Amino acid sequence: MSMPTCQSSDEIGTAFRQAMRQLAGGVCAITVGEGADRGGLVATSVTSLSVDPPTLLVCVNRSGASWPLIRRFGSFGVNLLAHRHLPLARRFSGQDGARGVERYDSGEWGSAATGAPILADALVAVDCAVEELIERHSHGIVIGRVRAVTPVREEEALVYLRGAYAPLAVN
């Protein structure tokens, strides 16, 4: 198979989106804010950056409502979702129309050391302080310094692949 010799920007964009849908990603609820001033989103673009010091990065659409909250509060939670959290994933992705603090109407929520909202029964939750924000194109790369990590729960994870949510169990 040979590579196309010339593609328009639109063709490349479409092909790139289709290609990236082939990468399975763990589904995380990114949580930010306090009280009535909370928001959040679903992200599959979360990865570890360093163990020493413990840092991770998440990519956030700068046109989304959570971006200014992350900038203002300077902290966020990364809540890795289990397959049983599928309704919550749909809620945090905006599929049911919930926005802002409405996204917290389901699930049991606590507060982390930084003040970030943490899902009580997440597979694992990571509390992060914003260390650096890098703005590139439509997204911001958020580098978070890990402040706390909840104990890991061993159960079926929720992954996103080919435009759909699916369970992933490891034997």
Can you describe what's shown?
The chain has 171 residues and is an alpha+beta fold. It has one domain (26-164): Roll (Pnp Oxidase, Chain A). It contains three helices and twelve strands, in the order αβββββαβαββββββ. It has helices at 9-20, 66-73, 86-92, and strands at residues 25-26, 28-34, 37-43, 46-51, 54-61, 75-80, 109-111, 117-119, 124-136, 139-149, 157-161, 164-168. Strands 3-2-6-9-10-5-4 form a seven-stranded antiparallel beta sheet, with helices on both faces. Strands 1-11-12 form a three-stranded antiparallel beta sheet, with no helix packed on it. A two-stranded antiparallel ribbon has the order 7-8. A hairpin with a 2-residue loop joins strand 4 (46-51) and strand 5.
Helical residues, percent = 10-25%
Distance between the termini: 36 Å
Structural class: alpha+beta
Instruction: Evaluate the radius of gyration.
Output: 17 Å
Question: What name is given to the CATH topology?
Answer: Pnp Oxidase, Chain A
**Counting H and I runs of at least 4 residues, what is the number of helices?**
3
- What is the CATH top level name? Mainly Beta
Large-scale geometry: globular
Mean pLDDT: 95
Which regions have little confidence, pLDDT < 50, spanning 5+ residues?
none
Spell the H/E element sequence. Answer: HEEEEEHEHEEEEEE
Can you tell me the number of structural domains? 1
Range of strand content: 35-45%
Number of strands: 12
Largest sheet: 7 strands, antiparallel
CATH superfamily: Electron Transport, Fmn-binding Protein, Chain A
Strand order of the largest sheet: 3-2-6-9-10-5-4
CATH architecture: Roll
